[in-house]
Recover the amino acids of this structure.
């Protein structure tokens, strides 16, 4: 029994040394930087801006109309005409609020949809990269990560390269 226990302990020690000798490959990605610096994220943002620009202009036009009606009410002296202007203002303001709320809701829904697709794409790229380069672990949030384990640039390149720089 004594030899069995010694043999078992020796086997455990050898196993630990072998496990420690295997190198663990860890990678790191900077998620916020990937989102802000990749061309793919920029393209998605621009596509959403183009998609919603007409509706945004429509909402802004309605807002201007509400403000104009509000300023017109103050200049009306006749009580009957003032009442008509106030009623028109209330109806227009209510339509504006509904239009603005609908616009914001639809924009937020589309942004969430596009973000979900974008993050699925990023996740797929990181998984393929990790498997191809034999990484054991890839983390996104870290207190510290050296340049040797930072895979952010590789992921940004896989997403079409860096985003265009804004013009001053």
């Amino acid at each position: 029994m004594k030899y069995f226990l010694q043999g078992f302990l020796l086997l455990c020690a050898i196993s630990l040394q072998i496990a420690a000798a295997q190198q663990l490959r860890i990678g790191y990605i900077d998620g916020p930087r990937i989102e802000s610096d990749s061309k793919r994220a920029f393209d998605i943002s621009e596509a959403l801006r183009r998609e919603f620009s007409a509706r945004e202009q429509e909402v802004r036009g309605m807002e201007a109309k509400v403000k104009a009606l509000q300023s017109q009410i103050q200049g009306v002296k006749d009580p009957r005409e003032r009442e008509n202007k106030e009623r028109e203002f209330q109806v227009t303001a209510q339509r504006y609020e509904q239009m603005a709320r609908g616009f914001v809701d639809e924009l937020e829904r589309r942004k969430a949809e596009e973000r979900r697709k974008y993050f699925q794409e990023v996740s797929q790229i990181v998984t393929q990269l990790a498997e191809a380069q034999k990484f054991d672990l890839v983390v996104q949030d870290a207190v510290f990560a050296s340049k040797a384990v930072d895979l952010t640039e590789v992921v940004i390149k896989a997403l079409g390269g860096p985003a265009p720089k804004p013009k001053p």
DSSP finds five helices and two strands in the chain. Residues 7-12 have pLDDT under 50 and may be disordered.
